[in-house]
Design brief:
Layout: E1 7-17, E2 22-30, H1 34-38, H2 52-62, E3 63-66, H3 74-78, H4 82-97, H5 100-115, E4 132-134, H6 138-154, H7 157-174
Antiparallel strand pairs: 1-2, 2-3, 2-4
Helix pairs in contact: 4-5, 4-7
Length: 175
């Protein structure tokens, strides 16, 4: 077996709220294949390589787990908060085009800010009750607000510039 890591755990800054009101933050993304990037270009909903929907389709193919959500489709990705979509774009760029340090920086940054602890990136783990909380419970709402405030106040300007550069670079490579 090769030493190539093909799946990476992540932790969304805000979280995906499903139809039952459950909040899902922990997930897994796999490395993209050429087909993952080419097939969405053939989708009739995609006008050209700059169409924002292309990102939705690609991410729905490579995100393999999101809390306890059974299957990740474009609908789940479309319903992410903007901060989570941006984060997943960063993860995608880092794991597919970055080096080990860039991968660790993107994955560990959101993980440590959101949970105060590092999320392991070296294995795929089964979802636990810690991956899912009720978004309708008062404590769940308070935690989301606290996480959002922490994200706003602890954002490192150097990280923001680096993230924008990676997103632009990924866009150019896809175009």
């Amino acid at each position: 077996m090769s030493g190539l890591q093909t799946e990476f755990d992540f932790f969304l800054p805000k979280g995906f709220v499903d139809e039952q009101g459950q909040l899902h933050r922990a997930g897994t993304m796999r490395l993209a294949t050429a087909r993952d990037e080419l097939d969405p270009l053939r989708d009739p909903r995609v006008r050209d390589a700059d169409d924002p929907f292309l990102t939705i389709l690609v991410l729905s193919r490579v995100v393999t787990r999101l809390g306890t959500v059974g299957q990740i489709t474009p609908r789940e990705i479309e319903n992410l908060f903007a901060a989570d979509l941006a984060y997943l774009q960063d993860v995608y760029g880092a794991i597919n085009f970055g080096n080990t340090e860039e991968i660790a920086a993107v994955i560990d940054d959101a993980s440590s800010r959101a949970t105060g602890a590092r999320v392991a990136t070296s294995h795929h783990s089964e979802p636990t009750s810690a991956d899912v909380v009720s978004a309708t419970e008062p404590d769940g709402d308070a935690q989301i607000a606290e996480d959002a405030a922490a994200d706003d106040h602890q954002q490192d300007p150097e990280f923001v510039v680096s993230r924008r550069t990676r997103v632009q670079e990924v866009g150019r490579r896809q175009g």
